[in-house]
Design brief:
This protein is mainly beta. About 10% of the residues lie in helices and about 40% in strands.
Length: about 240
């Protein structure tokens, strides 16, 4: 409850500077995947990795590494917004997930590719500290944006002094994340702790992103990373457009 309160205060403080009123909208009804669709390579179309169970969105690929990226994508596109949600991770899961935003799927690119920035969710120990950091899946980029790196590699020296991540068997078992996008400024808060606070001017709106239709406006998406055995749940997904 403490982390939820801190995240709420942070979001309200930021939103208080906006002039236009907006409403919180739920992106998951707890019953089915209305408002979402799956994007993946053709060979993965017949598989069911994303489903609804116990009023949560469950991704489960345990025991099955024979897949590429499989995304659960919002039907609607978003530009500037505050997104809040909760997620539950499992120790037996060795896979990676994340929340992509301002993204567009290109079925013709490399057999199917979702271009756009992504906030990492990394339940694999000992690097759970990666959760909340900003990566870019745009095809020509594929590197960490915050912290700035040249590729996918991020050594332990980038681990923050303060971070908190819990598994399903700890406490209530749920982590809370807030993602705030306004212009090229991206901020994330994980369990009440700021993890990303970054201005991507000149990067999110550069030639590569504009060509791929990513970085400034697009779909939200939950990720199942290629060849990963992942078990993760999402719920309480709420968005307020700015």
């Amino acid at each position: 409850m403490k982390f939820r309160f801190l995240a709420f205060v942070a979001v309200m403080a930021l939103f208080g500077s906006c002039n236009q009123p907006a409403q919180w909208v739920s992106l998951f009804n707890g019953v089915d995947l209305s408002g979402w669709h799956v994007e993946c390579r053709e060979q993965d179309r017949a598989k069911t990795y994303w489903q609804v169970e116990d009023s949560t969105i469950l991704c489960n690929s345990l025991g099955d590494k024979d897949h590429h990226y499989v995304w659960l994508v919002s039907d609607k596109e978003y530009e500037d917004f505050i997104l809040t949600f909760r997620f539950q991770a499992y120790r037996e899961s060795t896979g990676n997930s994340g929340v992509q935003f301002r993204s567009h799927y290109d079925q013709a690119l490399d057999g199917g590719w979702l271009n756009g920035p992504q906030i990492d969710i990394h339940p694999k120990e000992p690097k759970t500290w990666r959760t909340g950091l900003l990566y870019d899946e745009t095809y020509e980029v594929q590197r960490w944006l915050y912290p700035a790196r040249q590729n996918w590699s991020i050594p332990d020296e980038y681990a923050p002094a303060e971070h908190f991540f819990k598994f399903a068997d700890e406490g209530d078992g749920w982590n809370e994340m807030v993602i705030i996008c306004r212009g090229t400024h991206i901020k994330t808060i994980v369990n009440g702790i700021t993890r990303t606070d970054w201005n991507g001017e000149g990067i999110l709106d550069d030639v590569e992103h504009l060509r791929r239709g990513s970085g400034t406006k697009g779909h939200l998406a939950l990720q199942l990373h290629r060849h990963d055995e992942l078990k993760i749940r999402y719920k309480d997904i709420m968005i307020k457009e700015l």
